[in-house]
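Standup notes
- DV: blocked on the single-chain target, sequence here:
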Amino acid sequence: MNLDQQFDNLINQAPKYGVPAPIMQYGVVPVLKVYAQQLSHKKYYLRQTLENNLVLTVLGKQDNPDIEKKVVYAFPTVEDAVQFADSDIDKLEIVAQEISIGEILFQMFTLREVDSIIFLDTPQNYNQSKEIYCDKLQQAIQENLKMLLDTNKSPNSTIA
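- DV (later): unblocked, structure below
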């Protein structure tokens, strides 16, 4: 499924998420598209528990252990997701779930306990990645929605 199809699906499913379709189409999707175009794949594999919770990895700095961030890794292949070394997790409790980039980015808009998602672009190469911060994505969407609402205050607006 190409990016346009992914975002069309999100727009069509928006009411199911409690978001009016015009808000999704004009306020959310344009921002998600900008982020999606920076990534190498149309789908990624996220590690989840058997209860469908995302697997969080806590990263810290050796020189400042008080600074931590919680990340989710997005893998280009199911093999990479399964083989990723994480000593704190029992591999029998983890599954790799294929998720479209549009869906991942939309979920990032609602994630509260995750600081960022690290998208690994090249199979078997964990050094080449792109990190998208949830708060920056959320802020970009909020700014776009505010701008959209400010410019569409007329009573005949399709957004209002």
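- Follow-up: Helices lie at 3-13, 21-36, 78-83, 101-110, 134-151.
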